[in-house]
Amino acid sequence: DVCTAHPMEAKVAGVDFDGIIRAVLKGQDIRSGGSGMAAGGNDLGFEVFDNTSKAFGASEDDKQQQTKEATNKSQAVNHRLGEMEGTLWTRLAEYHVRAGDFELARSVYEEALDAITRVRDFSLVFDAYVRFEEGVIEALMELMEDEDEEGDEDEMKDDKGESMGDENDDLDILLGDHVNNAVAADENAGASADVELAISRAEHLTSRRPLLLNRVLLRQNPHNVGEWIKRSELYNDLGEVDMAAAALEESLKAVSSRKAVNGSPSTLVLTLVDIYENQQKNVDAAQNLLER
User: Fold this and answer.
1) Long-range pairs for 232-236 at CB < 8 Å and ≥24 separation?
2) C-alpha closest to that of 231 among 208, 206, 202
């Protein structure tokens, strides 16, 4: 909480808050010199499972075993984190927001949405992401209003000073007012463009929610046939036929017939054939799919 509320002070103090949070999320050991948090109990005493040095000279069987061990440890990390994962991601993003690194905060939110595997964590991160984008819009609009008020005050001052400098009136009309108006117009146009961009970002984020949630559910269980079909339908609703076909092609590689749930794998094939024939008008692709 202290690092999140006072990011600049944390940096000055030498606290690598970003590195610490990422280490916990990746399941690495953040202890130093054997002191600090100990393994076991309620502490997150995670081990570093970087097997790079072990990979050199290892056989294929050894490499597969190392990959399996790393996967098991990663799953154990997610289990140990529990409902903390979403909170950690949002705190990390908030840390960068308070530090003024908005683009970095945005990238953290996107990274979190690509990593989390629980619906609760998804809701937590997504809602925080939406609030962040809405806050950007509000800040930009307040800035525009302040600039407009300053412009009105400047105009009032100019009106009061009309009686002074009569000899330079013609020059002011020809140069000063036109230049000032042009500069003000450019500033207003730039501020308006920033607001429109922020609104577009927020709308785009909101429109992506069904697909992002669908991806979380597929990370939970990549053998869920119904969710793959839903993903294809979501892309079709957006008019992205190629992406709908690509999603089903991905599903054919991910779904195991023995582990399939919520539908039959044959449904994936038939749905993809229908897209090839009726939407893409690609009979050859449909025929090749059926011949596989």
Assistant:
1) 232/271, 232/272, 232/275, 234/210, 235/211, 236/275, 236/279
2) 208
DSSP 15: -
What 8-state DSSP symbol labels residue 57? T
Report whether 183 contacts 150 (CB < 8 A): no
Question: 116 and 93 in contact (C-beta within 8 Å)?
Answer: no
What's the token pair of residue 206?
Answer: 């909101």
Q: One-letter amino acid identity for 109?
A: Y
Scanning the structure block, which residue is given the tokens 């999320």? 25
Instruction: Place 181 in a pLDDT band, splitting at 50, 70 and 90.
Output: low
Give, to the nearest 10 degrees, the angle between helix 225-237 and helix 265-274: 20
Q: How many CA atoms lie within 13 A of 152 on its CB side?
A: 6
Q: Highest mean pLDDT range out of 7-11, 40-44, 258-262? A: 258-262
Map residue 32 onto helix, strand or coil: strand
Give 126's Cβ-side CA count (13 Å radius): 22
For residues 74 and 125, give the distance between their C-alpha atoms in angstroms, rounded to a whole number.
Answer: 20
CA 168, 174, 177, 179 dihedral sign is: negative
Distance CA(114)–CA(217), nearest Å, equals 12
Tens of pLDDT, residues 76-121: 545 556 668 899 999 999 999 988 899 999 999 999 999 999 999 9
- Output the six-digit token pair for 235: 């892309």
Q: How far is CA 148 from the centre of its chain?
A: 33
Main-chain dihedrals φ then ψ at residue 224, nearest 5 degrees: -85, 100
Predicted TM-score (pTM) of the model is: 0.70
Tokens of 244: 């709908």
